[in-house]
Design brief:
Strand content: 25-35%
Radius of gyration: 16 Å
CATH topology: Peptide Deformylase
Helix content: 10-25%
CATH architecture: Alpha-Beta Complex
CATH class: Alpha Beta
Order of helices and strands: EHEEHEEEEEHHHE
Number of helices: 5
Number of domains: 1
CATH superfamily: Peptide deformylase
Length: 192
């Protein structure tokens, strides 16, 4: 089932999410709905707070980015061909010092894209759908998508990394999103 995406301005997007256990109600269905919602929205990642759940769960499919790269960009990224994974109860263990800039967007903040600086590599501990624990290191675009989605379960948004002046210039657009004065190709839920 395709779920509505929570729009910027909703308090849940600023709340730190909580861990879950294997007995979380209908977890398999929730994960399936998150995949369906993400793909229907043309996203490459989706976190539970974006569908109004305050739990530490997100899904990432960076393979779609690589499938859609122009021929001249293929082979440029170390994480090609990407990954498709579920992350439950994730905790970032560390980053490398090297950083890079990449243009990011967010399903909860439609029509706004900005160049954001993030570490090139992230090490994260998480559980999969069977609650098996993994510790993996991701880099390139995949590492970036994971950092972006992880921020959602920490109550952070990509716009928090912008310089104050740039964010101030976008204030009207952000307010329009909060008030529901935007149109998207996917279902959205706006703060009341």
């Amino acid at each position: 089932m395709i779920l509505p995406i929570v729009a910027y301005g909703a308090p849940i997007l600023r709340k730190k999410a909580v861990d879950i256990t294997p007995d979380y109600p209908q977890l398999d269905k929730l994960i399936a709905d998150m995949w369906e919602t993400m793909y229907a929205s043309s996203g490459v990642g989706l976190a539970a707070p974006q569908i109004n759940r305050d739990i530490r769960l997100f899904v990432v499919d960076s393979t779609t980015i690589f499938e859609n790269l122009d021929e001249e960009d293929k082979g440029k990224y170390p994480d090609e061909p990407g990954v498709k994974k579920v992350f439950i109860n994730a905790q970032i263990l560390g980053f490398n010092e090297e950083q890079w800039t990449y243009n990011e967007g967010c399903l909860s903040i439609p029509r706004i894209r900005e160049d954001i600086i993030r570490p090139t590599t992230v090490t994260i501990q998480y559980q999969d759908e069977q609650f098996q624990t993994h510790t993996d290191t991701f880099n390139g675009i995949t590492g970036r998508v994971i950092q972006h989605e992880y921020d959602h379960i920490e109550g952070k948004l990509f716009i928090d990394y912008m310089k104050p002046l740039r964010k101030k210039l976008l204030l009207r657009k952000l307010n329009d999103i909060t008030k529901g004065k935007i149109k998207t190709d996917y279902k959205m839920s706006f703060a009341k």
